[in-house]
UniProtKB/TrEMBL annotation:
Family: Belongs to the DNA photolyase class-1 family.
Name of the protein: Cryptochrome DASH
Residues that bind FAD: 232, 245-249, 285-292, 383-385
PROSITE patterns given in the database record: PHR_CRY_ALPHA_BETA
Keyword Cell cycle among UniProt keywords: no
Bound cofactor: record note: Binds 1 5,10-methenyltetrahydrofolate (MTHF) per subunit. Binds 1 FAD per subunit.
Cofactor dependency: (6R)-5,10-methylene-5,6,7,8-tetrahydrofolate; FAD
GO biological process, one term: photoreactive repair
Organism: Flavobacterium amnicola
One Gene Ontology molecular-function label: deoxyribodipyrimidine photo-lyase activity
């Protein structure tokens, strides 16, 4: 038993089903929960977009406030630091004489690099870094294949995993956390993070609010208050309103709720209200999320390369500023693409159906470097998740995990099928004429 441990929160901003937190408590007399506003997360990328836009930054701040409240109820609290984690975390380690740091295990390249830098600095202080895998439905150790042997085709991965692996039970929330007295928080403003506050458009499909409390409220609403889960498969391709899909993505991306906890709630729901294709389909979508995360573990930097995980790339590597601006601002010749892009610009959200269409349009009609589109999504999306975003964009660009290669969407046909009566387009294009 060590005296003091540090729990480094990242995209696991919750107290329920948080193995990192549970392990730290079990191995130490007291813990110090820390969140670092990493400077690199608020930089401009090589593609010219912010890594974190104002919509997601606001959601992050709300999630941290909720985490702090939940920790304080258990006798602890959150310590906020800002800067480079490899500089700031060792300072806290020295100040509080910390012997071990616990953190969520990363899989994507930049996050792995930061983890390694922190580990190297902690080693100099004779402080160990222990990481836990907390982001997936299935634990990597329980998969029926090694990471290097995971099938690159989702269907093959899914069938074998469903057949041969089990989902672990969620970890219980701690009853009490022992922490030294922590200073009251000084919350940074969006301005201090280098961002302008942006008001979300009133037409937004859902008004996301960050935090574990809100994640549970959403689950209660979608499962039990409305029983929308029982119709999920039929409605999931909708585009207007809050309940055509679960909308769990933002809370999952920030780690305000875990996929395992959602899975356990689905199983409870099925016992009470019955299982059907829809209840299964939500789990199916969580498996897609796992798949991309394990793909990043397997292929590492390749998902950020122009050729992706393939050896050749067919379309152009160019950027045409005028076409890019038209796509971002919803000024293309396609009203369906425009409506989706305006929704993303004004709200930080877009439906799954919309995302596939605008990505296909970007890659196939505009014929531009797909990574520019992915980088814009990284800036805009409230529910940005590095593996899902870049994995899906590579998939649509024909350089990812799509066994059929280059996937082309007939935009007009899609618009007719999914927005037959133009309800979605009317909603988002209604005041376009009055704009400059």
């Amino acid at each position: 038993m060590i005296k003091t441990a540090l729990v480094w929160f990242k995209t696991d901003l919750r107290v329920e089903d948080n193995e990192t937190l549970v392990k730290a408590i079990s191995q130490s007399q007291e813990i110090i929960p820390v969140y670092c506003f990493d400077d690199s997360h608020f930089e401009t990328t090589s593609f010219g977009f912010q890594k974190t836009g104002p919509f997601r930054a606001q959601f992050l701040l709300e999630s941290l406030e909720d985490l702090d409240r939940n920790l304080r109820r258990l006798g602890s609290g959150l310590l906020l630091i800002k800067g480079k984690p490899e500089i700031e975390i060792p300072k806290i380690v020295q100040e509080y004489k910390i012997q071990k740091v616990f953190a969520k295990r990363e899989v994507a390249y930049e996050e792995k690099q930061t983890e390694k830098l922190v580990q190297n600095e902690l080693f100099k202080l004779r402080c160990e870094l222990e990481t836990c895998s907390t982001s997936t439905l299935y634990h990597a150790e329980d998969l029926p294949f090694s990471i290097k042997d995971i099938p690159d085709v989702f269907t093959n991965f899914r069938k074998k995993t469903e057949q041969d692996a089990i989902v672990r039970n969620p970890f219980q929330k701690p009853i009490r956390i022992n922490s030294p007295k922590l200073p009251l928080l000084q919350w940074p403003t969006l301005k201090e993070l280098g961002l302008k506050k942006t008001t979300i458009d009133a037409r937004a499909a859902i008004h996301f609010k960050g935090g574990e409390t809100e994640a549970f409220n959403r689950l209660q609403h979608y499962f039990y208050d409305t029983k929308c889960l029982s119709n999920y498969k039929e409605t999931r391709n909708g585009m207007v309103g809050s309940d055509y899909s679960s909308k769990f993505s933002a809370w999952l991306a920030m780690g305000c709720i875990s996929p395992r906890l959602i899975y356990s709630e689905v199983k409870k729901y099925e016992k009470e209200f019955g299982a059907n294709d829809s209840t299964y389909w939500l789990i199916f979508e969580l498996l897609w999320r796992d798949f991309f995360r394990f793909m990043f573990k397997k292929h590492q930097t390749k998902f950020f390369l122009y050729a992706g995980i393939k050896n050749e790339k067919a379309n152009s590597q160019s950027v045409q500023e005028k076409l890019l601006s038209q796509w971002i601002n919803g000024k293309t010749p396609s009203d369906f693409i425009n409506a989706n892009m305006i929704e993303l610009k004004r709200t930080g959200f877009m439906s799954n159906r919309g995302r596939q269409n605008v990505a296909s349009y970007f890659c196939n009609e505009l014929n531009m470097d797909w990574r520019i589109g992915a980088a814009y999504f990284e800036q805009q999306l409230i529910d940005y998740d590095v593996c899902s975003n870049w994995g899906n964009w590579a998939y649509l660009a024909g350089v990812g995990n799509d066994p059929r290669g280059h996937r082309y969407f007939n935009i007009e046909k899609q618009a007719q099928e999914y927005d037959k009566y133009k309800v979605f387009r009317t909603l988002w294009l209604s005041n376009l004429k009055s704009e400059k």
